[in-house]
């Protein structure tokens, strides 16, 4: 119906909308995986607490391990003390800021610690004759995660580096590291740089001057950098290189020309294994016990009653607890899928998910003491676990502490920490797999529904197009609907439409032929009545009879005119089918017609606005018949003394013929139906002769015969109506 609103949502849109409820499936999967993550978190909590309990049980009833005296090394001793470090140290930041919590334990060496070596052949009492304080150093050793860390802060008023092209390592300032290995062999290493750089250690033989005996030792790493009053060497080496004896010596060269060793300051006699200092660690027994726990993928720390860290194994960045197996090579070979994952799916997923990162700093453990509610509870005798978030909640830490008892007293506690990145990574991988699978299934379902809806929409649209093409612009049935052979509802609807159209076509054909049948059937009785009235008129003598006979003849004339009008359109259609067109000048045809209309309608003002030539392919007689209908219609509706204008031009490849008159506007609802058969807008009381609404219908038949278009419209500039005819022009042969 005309007033119905168009629904913006078609079948496809509705099916896609309904399929959006499938999004509840990934939500349910997401909730399931979050629940699974919670179970994993609880399991990891029990594992961490169990690790702390197992280690605390191994340390119970051993009070000597927590003796305070082990943390007060005697100064001026040849022995070297190693202190537990809570986190890995940076060896390339050119500062000692990482050591700030331990620098109070550093040892100083100077004039009293000079020794004689083959490079400075003096007596072993040379320290008594070395009065120069220009050479001294400070030393600190620490242990973290099975590595020995050390820094040597040297005061030297003149630093001499190894020449760029020199292979000798003894003709410049250098550092000698001596140790007795675990198989009781003396090993000596030399660090002799060519400038501030990463250290490059060499193992030497019996003689420092023997270049051929030098071997690179890559397990010793670190940095040599300068300070205002000398230089600093930071280095690291694995503990499994070391035995029980250890020493360091600074060799000083003051002249870059002579390059002789002037003095050597050392922690002990570095060239004699019997006189090397001992390497003392405050918690050697604890270390042996904890060493077996080093494979738990956790950070383990042992603290005493004062929350002082005695030992730290592992670092929190790598202590993820849950190990994720790496992807097999087969899964990563599809580079197209990897591209989709990395550039489309992952950026979308990680707007919701939290991507764990091991690049964080645990600021709670930035000192030599440990703190936390879990540790406080353990030192009060209550094992506890807790979760802690750092780095804007992107990383969570699981911490557990268990008390250590000796003689019924709490001597300390074991703290075991893990980050939750392993579980989060596992959760993310599970969610990615789930989302990828669900996304694939949903895409298949949505595309399937979309294809199904498109198929249904296409069939409905095809049925609609057939229904729209059944009736032409003139309201006539010109096609039928092809009945579908499908057994569904749409096929059944098309067959119902087919039956309706067939019956409607039969009825329309009956109506179209009714006028010609009536005209044919009524013409004979009308002729009989007319002839009888003529005969009666010749025999009738009285005046009253003559009046009645005259009225009867007028009625017969009107009836005859009706029959003529009814058959005129039918005859014209039949003639149009057999007529042949010719090249005519429309302007000349119209000029002749206008002259005739001025004679036929002396009371009407008919103006001609013609400009030619306007060459078309047509039949002049039919054009004149069309003009007869248009002018007759205009004359009947034009206001008195108002002109009727006939306009003709060749415009943009078409002949434009327009007849305008001053008169009442056409009703809006009649504009589209004005040229249909048996349509009239004349008031019944104003009809001077019978009208069946066939005049403009005939005009439309003539315009269609000439491949033209005809329309009627109201004029906005004044009260009037214009009927416009557009006919294609003949192609211009000169173009």
From TrEMBL:
The chain crosses the membrane at residues 434-454. GO terms for molecular function: phosphorelay sensor kinase activity. SUPFAM superfamilies: ATPase domain of HSP90 chaperone/DNA topoisomerase II/histidine kinase, CBD9-like, Homodimeric domain of signal transducing histidine kinase. One of its GO terms (cellular component) is membrane. Residues 454-509 form the HAMP domain. It catalyses: ATP + protein L-histidine = ADP + protein N-phospho-L-histidine. The keyword Signal does not apply. It holds the Pfam family HATPase_c. Its main location: membrane. It is an enzyme of class 2 (transferase). Keywords: Coiled coil, Kinase, Membrane, Phosphoprotein, Transferase, Transmembrane, Transmembrane helix, Two-component regulatory system. This is histidine kinase. The lineage of its organism: Bacteria, Pseudomonadati, Pseudomonadota, Gammaproteobacteria, Pseudomonadales.
């Amino acid at each position: 119906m005309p007033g119905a609103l168009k629904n913006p949502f078609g079948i496809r849109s509705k099916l896609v909308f309904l399929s959006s409820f499938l999004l509840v499936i990934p939500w349910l999967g997401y909730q399931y995986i979050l629940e699974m993550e919670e179970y994993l978190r609880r399991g990891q909590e029990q594992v961490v607490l169990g690790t702390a309990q197992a280690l605390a049980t191994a340390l119970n009833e051993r009070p000597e391990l927590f003796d305070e005296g082990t943390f007060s090394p005697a100064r001026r001793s040849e022995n070297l003390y190693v202190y537990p470090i809570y986190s890995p140290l940076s060896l390339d930041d050119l500062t000692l800021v990482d050591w700030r919590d331990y620098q109070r334990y550093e040892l100083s060496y100077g004039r009293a610690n000079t020794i004689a070596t083959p490079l400075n052949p003096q007596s072993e009492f040379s320290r008594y004759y070395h009065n120069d304080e220009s050479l001294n150093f400070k030393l600190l050793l620490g242990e973290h995660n099975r590595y020995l860390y050390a820094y040597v802060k040297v005061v030297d008023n003149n630093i001499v580096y190894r020449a760029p092209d020199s292979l000798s390592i003894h003709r410049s300032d250098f550092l000698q590291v001596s140790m007795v290995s675990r198989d009781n062999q003396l090993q000596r290493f030399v660090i002799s740089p060519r400038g501030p750089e990463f250290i490059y250690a060499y193992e030497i033989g019996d003689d420092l001057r023997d270049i051929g005996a030098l071997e690179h030792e890559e397990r010793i790493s670190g940095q040599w950098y300068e300070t205002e009053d000398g230089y600093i060497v930071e280095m690291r080496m694995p503990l499994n290189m070391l035995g029980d004896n250890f020493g360091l010596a600074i060799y000083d060269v003051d002249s870059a020309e002579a390059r002789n060793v002037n003095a050597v300051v050392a922690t002990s006699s570095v060239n004699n294994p019997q006189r090397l200092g001992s390497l003392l660690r405050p918690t050697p027994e604890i270390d042996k016990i904890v060493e077996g726990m080093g494979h738990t993928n956790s950070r383990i720390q042992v603290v005493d009653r004062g929350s002082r860290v005695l030992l730290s194994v592992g670092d929190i960045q790598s202590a993820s607890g849950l190990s994720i197996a790496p992807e097999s090579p087969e899964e990563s070979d599809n580079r197209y899928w990897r591209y989709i994952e990395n550039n489309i799916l992952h950026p979308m997923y990680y707007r919701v998910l939290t991507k764990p990162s091991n690049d964080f700093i645990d600021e709670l453990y930035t000192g030599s003491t440990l703190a936390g509610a879990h540790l406080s509870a353990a030192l009060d005798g209550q094992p506890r676990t807790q979760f802690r978030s750092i780095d804007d909640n992107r990383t969570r830490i699981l911490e557990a502490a268990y008390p250590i008892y000796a003689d019924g007293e709490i001597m300390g506690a074991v703290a075991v920490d893990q980050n939750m990145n392993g579980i989060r990574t596992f959760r993310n991988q599970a969610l990615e797999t789930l989302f990828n699978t669900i996304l694939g299934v949903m895409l298949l379902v949505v595309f399937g529904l979309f294809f199904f809806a498109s198929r249904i929409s296409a069939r409905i649209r095809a049925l609609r197009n057939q229904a729209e093409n059944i009736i032409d612009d003139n309201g006539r049935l010109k096609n039928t609907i092809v009945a579908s052979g499908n057994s569904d509802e749409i096929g059944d609807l098309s067959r119902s439409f087919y039956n309706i159209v067939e019956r409607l076509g039969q009825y329309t054909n009956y109506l179209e032929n009714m006028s010609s049948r009536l005209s044919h059937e009524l013409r004979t009785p009308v002729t009989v009545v007319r002839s009888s009235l003529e005969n009666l008129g010749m025999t009738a003598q009285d005046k009253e009879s003559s009046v009645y006979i005259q009225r009867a003849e007028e009625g017969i004339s009107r009836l005859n005119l009706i029959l003529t009008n009814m058959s005129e359109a039918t005859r014209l259609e039949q003639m149009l089918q057999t007529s042949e067109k010719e090249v005519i000048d429309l302007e000349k045809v119209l000029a002749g017609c206008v002259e005739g209309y001025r004679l036929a309608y002396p009371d009407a003002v008919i103006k001609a606005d013609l400009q030619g030539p306007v060459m078309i392919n047509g039949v002049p007689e039919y054009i004149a018949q069309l003009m007869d209908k248009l002018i007759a219609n205009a004359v009947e509706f034009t206001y008195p003394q108002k002109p009727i204008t006939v306009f003709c031009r060749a415009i943009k490849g078409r002949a434009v013929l327009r007849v305008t008159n001053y008169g009442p506007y056409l009703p809006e609802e009649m504009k589209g139906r004005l040229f249909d058969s048996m349509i009239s807008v004349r008031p019944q009381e104003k009809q001077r002769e019978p009208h069946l609404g066939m005049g403009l219908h005939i005009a439309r038949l003539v315009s269609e015969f000439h491949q033209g278009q005809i329309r009627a419209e109201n004029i906005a500039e004044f009260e009037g109506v214009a009927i416009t005819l557009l006919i294609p022009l003949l192609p211009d042969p000169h173009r």
